[in-house]
Amino acid sequence: MHEPSDGDLTPIVRERAYFLWEEAGRPYGREFEFWARASHEIEADRRAACERHQAERSVAR
């Protein structure tokens, strides 16, 4: 998956929300639930990656 360089995570959130919706059996009327969950997961992933990167930089010093 390619991250947009301008910081717009919309395409990534859209794709993650779609897969979450698919996994849940494509329920009707819950698009905001899946969008929010996808957004939360992506932000958590990005924070974790940032923390790992900072930890690696600290160890390298």
Automatic annotation (TrEMBL):
A Pfam family (short name) is DUF2934
Top-rank taxon of the source lineage equals: Bacteria
**Name of the molecule in the record:** DUF2934 domain-containing protein
